[in-house]
């Protein structure tokens, strides 16, 4: 028995994409008809000759994965990271045999269970009990296996009371818990997991991570895709960084995450020099870029309520600026200011010599109700009337709700009725 | 240890063994289809009886009373129609269900691996259960007309399988095409409606002139329906053997075509669905 369980050689996957010609190319009805008739004729020809039909006027070949070579050993937990569109999901789909590669080969030694989505095949009309059997079988468990683990699954999901209720009546939290509970009790030799932990509350996420950690400790191999770097570093020893369909680096998890973060910071920043905005004096310097990160230092534009936001603001100074002040601002979608975060308030007063600087602000808890907000930034000399450079509307961020205080509050509802800021309070009946 | 090799264009040698390994999935998918089928309906399973029964009444009135077509031998006309209505609805239902099955299970196909053949095959079970329920009506009718079947009724299971195979072949082909070209979703209802009048459901195939009989049997359902009638009505409706074998050959051909087309397209389903 060899120690290598997954071996990929020259693995590649090509997609052919059709593009629609730009709108407005055909003006007269006659042209449109002729165009459609031509299209129809080509399609019929392709159908008869058995060639694949591509919708659209022009086609383009895209290599989602190109020339991948790697080996994964028994018992390893390997994280796969990369930006959106880097080919992570395509790789998982090939490994779980959902789609076939265009070139190369993979040799897999053992039973693979893939979890690309929680609750695959759940039927809303069926009860929790029935769905456990349905979903379990779909994921590759035998009936006997499910029967044996049934109680464990139900306990893990904490849904004992609702076992015989159709899942369409479940809250979304219960639904996810049940779905994950089934998946967590799979016992394959190789487990392939896509970003499925993004759902569910923080506490349950921890529980799932723990369960998956157990799996890899039992000598089973785990492949795990996530954007959550802390989850990856907690679970995996090794990681693969993908970049536009190719392997950039395979190494131990910390090295790879380090490398990824470097890219991410460069890649995700918003260039402010070309952003049109109201003219400001700019006699000392100007804002150059802004990057936003979540608590794991993953670049993001979506943030969870009560979680940290980290912003990095780049400035270019061309004349010595005494008592420089950098600010970060959050306003509502209507443009009214909600929060100012200001370097001088927190005691950072610096005389800036000409050059490029990056300021980082950490907002420990974002106390906004779930909605979209606009962020902006400024550069000014403290206690002057007018800021030297100021962009109020750099980009839009989204704050999503969470059950951070464990009270299952429906925060989103209140932001619809006009609320913006959450502040804690204490309630009792006297 | 079972080694899996993933390569482009490699048809796994153990495909049929895999199919067997996933038999529990087959069972549970058919069970799912069955148990959600009549959820949120008032009369539930009665729908399975009502549809063929009402069609039978209409056909009996139109073909026997209005068009004055003869029945097979001494068999009551209504019984003759219903003996054909059963295999026809079995065929029509399983064809309709199987040809939409892949689209209805998009989420499974794009997220989990299993031999895709299981999905259309599982729909046959739903159609079969509907068939068995409406079979009860046939028995009631036979008691009502005091019609005693001959020994060949024990051959019925053979013709049931034949009807299922007749629908599985085109069903597989169409469902595979349906993944890519949704046009085929509109073809099926038309085909089924059209076929109901082209096949000898409302009338006996004996009314077809002898010289056209063989040509008529190119419709594979002719063989199946004639076989069914022969099983139930006995000597009243003898099987026209050359036509029957022709129907058999056509069914076998379509089954082969369906399976081979399906296998060929199977691996790209997840990319294009």
General description of the model:
The complex is a heterodimer of chains A (430) and B (273). Chain A has 3 domains: 16-62, no CATH class; 65-264, P-loop containing nucleotide triphosphate hydrolases (Rossmann fold); 270-416, Distorted Sandwich (Coagulation Factor XIII, Chain A, domain 1). Chain A has helices at 29-49, 88-95, 128-138, 143-157, 172-184, 202-217, 229-235, 253-268, 411-416, and strands at residues 4-19, 58-73, 77-81, 103-109, 112-115, 190-193, 221-225, 238-243, 246-252, 270-271, 285-293, 302-304, 309-317, 321-332, 337-342, 350-352, 355-363, 371-381, 389-400. Chain A is built from 9 helices and 19 strands. In chain A, the strands form 4 sheets. In chain A, strands 5-6-7-3-8-9 form a 6-stranded mixed β-sheet, with helices on both faces. In chain A, strands 12, 14, 15, 16, 18 and 19 form a 6-stranded mixed β-sheet that branches. Chain B is mostly helical. Chain B has 12 helices and 1 strand; from the N terminus they run E-H-H-H-H-H-H-H-H-H-H-H-H. The radius of gyration of chain B is 20 Å and the shape is globular. Chain A binds chain B through residues 1, 15, 47, 52-53, 93-112, 114, 116-117, 120-121, 123, 125-126, 130, 133-134, 137-139, 142-143, and chain B through 1-10, 24-25, 28, 32, 35-36, 39-40, 105, 107-114, 180-181, 267-268, 270-271. Strand 4 of chain A pairs antiparallel with strand 1 of chain B, so a sheet runs across the interface.
């Amino acid at each position: 028995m060899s120690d290598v369980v997954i071996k990929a050689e020259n693995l590649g996957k090509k997609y052919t994409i059709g593009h629609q010609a730009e709108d407005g190319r055909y003006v007269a009805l006659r042209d449109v008809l002729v165009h459609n008739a031509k299209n129809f004729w080509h399609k019929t020809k392709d159908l008869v000759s058995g060639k694949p039909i591509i919708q659209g006027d022009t086609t383009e070949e895209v290599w989602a994965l190109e020339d991948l070579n790697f080996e994964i050993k028994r018992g390893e937990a390997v994280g796969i990271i990369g930006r959106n569109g880097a080919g992570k999901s395509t790789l998982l789909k090939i490994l779980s045999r959902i789609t076939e590669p265009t070139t190369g080969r993979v040799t897999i030694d053992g039973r693979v269970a893939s979890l690309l989505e929680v609750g695959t095949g759940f039927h809303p009309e069926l009860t929790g009990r029935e769905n456990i059997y349905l979903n379990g079988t779909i994921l590759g468990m035998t009936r006997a296996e499910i029967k044996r683990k049934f109680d464990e699954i139900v306990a893990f999901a904490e849904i004992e009371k609702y076992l015989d209720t159709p899942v369409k009546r479940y809250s979304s939290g219960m639904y996810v818990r049940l779905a994950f509970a089934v998946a967590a009790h799979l016992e394959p030799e190789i487990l392939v997991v896509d970003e499925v932990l993004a759902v569910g509350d923080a506490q349950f996420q921890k529980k799932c991570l723990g369960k998956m950690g157990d799996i890899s400790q039992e000598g089973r191999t785990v492949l795990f895709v996530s954007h959550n770097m802390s989850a990856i570093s907690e679970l995996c020893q090794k990681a693969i960084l993908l970049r536009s369909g190719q392997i950039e680096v395979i190494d131990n998890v910390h090295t790879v995450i380090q490398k990824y973060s470097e890219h991410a910071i460069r890649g995700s920043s918003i260039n402010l020099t070309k952003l049109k905005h109201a003219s400001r004096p700019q006699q000392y310097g100007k804002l150059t870029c802004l990057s936003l990160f979540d608590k794991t230092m993953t670049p993001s534009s979506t943030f969870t309520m009560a979680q940290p936001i980290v912003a990095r603001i780049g400035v270019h100074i061309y004349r010595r600026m005494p008592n420089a002040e950098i600010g970060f601002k959050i306003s509502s979608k209507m443009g009214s200011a909600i929060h100012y975060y200001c370097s001088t308030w927190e005691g950072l007063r610096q005389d800036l010599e000409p050059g490029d600087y990056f300021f980082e602000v950490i907002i420990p808890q974002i106390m906004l109700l779930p909605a979209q907000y606009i962020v902006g930034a400024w550069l000014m000399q403290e206690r002057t009337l007018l800021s030297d450079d100021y962009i109020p509307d750099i980009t839009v961020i989204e704050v999503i709700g969470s059950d951070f205080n464990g009270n299952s509050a429906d925060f989103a509802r209140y932001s619809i009725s006009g609320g913006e800021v959450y502040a804690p309070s204490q309630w009792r009946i006297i | 240890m079972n080694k899996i090799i993933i390569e482009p264009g490699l048809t796994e040698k153990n495909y049929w063994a895999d199919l067997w390994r996933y038999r529990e999935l087959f069972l549970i998918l058919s069970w799912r289809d069955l148990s959600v089928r009549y959820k949120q309906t008032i009369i539930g399973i009665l729908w399975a009886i009502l549809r063929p029964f009402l069609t039978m009444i209409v056909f009996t009135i139109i073909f026997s009373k209005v068009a004055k077509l003869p029945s097979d031998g001494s068999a009551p006309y209504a019984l003759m129609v219903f003996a054909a209505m059963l295999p026809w609805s079995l065929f029509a239902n399983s064809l309709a269900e199987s040809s939409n099955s892949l689209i209805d299970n998009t989420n499974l196909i794009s997220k989990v691996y299993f031999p895709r053949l299981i999905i259309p095959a599982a729909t046959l079970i739903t159609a079969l259960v509907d068939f068995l329920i409406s079979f009860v009506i046939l028995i009631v009718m036979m008691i009502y007309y005091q019609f005693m079947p001959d020994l060949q009724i024990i051959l019925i299971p053979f013709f049931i399988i034949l009807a299922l195979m007749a629908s599985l072949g085109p069903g597989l082909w169409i469902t595979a095409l349906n993944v890519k070209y949704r046009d085929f979703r509109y073809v099926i209802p038309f085909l089924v409606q059209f076929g109901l009048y082209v096949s000898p459901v409302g009338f006996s195939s004996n009314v077809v002139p002898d010289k056209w009989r063989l040509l008529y049997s190119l419709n594979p359902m002719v063989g199946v329906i004639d076989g069914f009638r022969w099983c139930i009505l006995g000597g009243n409706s003898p099987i026209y053997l050359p036509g029957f074998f022709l129907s058999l050959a056509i069914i076998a051909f379509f089954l082969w075509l369906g399976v081979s087309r399906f296998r060929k397209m199977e691996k790209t389903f997840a990319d294009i669905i």
